Amino acid sequence: MKIADKIDQDKLQEILITIYKKGLETENIGVTEIIEEIKQEFMTATKVTK
Known about the structure:
The chain has 50 residues and is mostly helical. The chain is 78% helix and 0% strand. It has 3 helices and no strands. The chain has helices spanning 3-6, 9-25, 31-48. Helix 2 packs antiparallel against helix 3. The longest helix is centred in the last third of the chain and has 18 residues, at 31-48. The chain is elongated and about 35 Å long. The relative contact order is 0.20. The model has no long low-confidence stretch (mean pLDDT 78).
């Protein structure tokens, strides 16, 4: 499965902005937490557009 087949450019931009904002809100966020957040955002986006 290609992510590009499941989400469009606008949705990708929305996901990245959401992750960026969450990173700014949290003072001590670890790399693992950011990766998990990215993974969750993409999984949610691909499920919604099926």
